[in-house]
Amino acid sequence: MFCNRIKHLSIGQRLYPIKNHVAAYCSNIQAIDMSYDVFESKNPDNNLSPLIIMHGLFGSKQNWRGVGRALASKMNRKVITVDARNHGNSPHTDDHDSKCMAADIIQLMHRLNFRKVSVLGHSMGGRTMMYFALKYPEMVDKGIIADISPISIPGDISNMGKILLAMKNINIPQDVPMAAGRQLVNADLIKVVPSKETVDFVLLNLRKADDGKYYWIHNVDALYNNMSAFTKYGEIIKGLPPFKGPVMFICGKNSPYVNPNHWPQIQNIFPNSEIHWLDAGHLVHFQQAAKFIELTVGFLNK
Question: What pLDDT is recorded for position 7?
Answer without folding.
Answer: 30
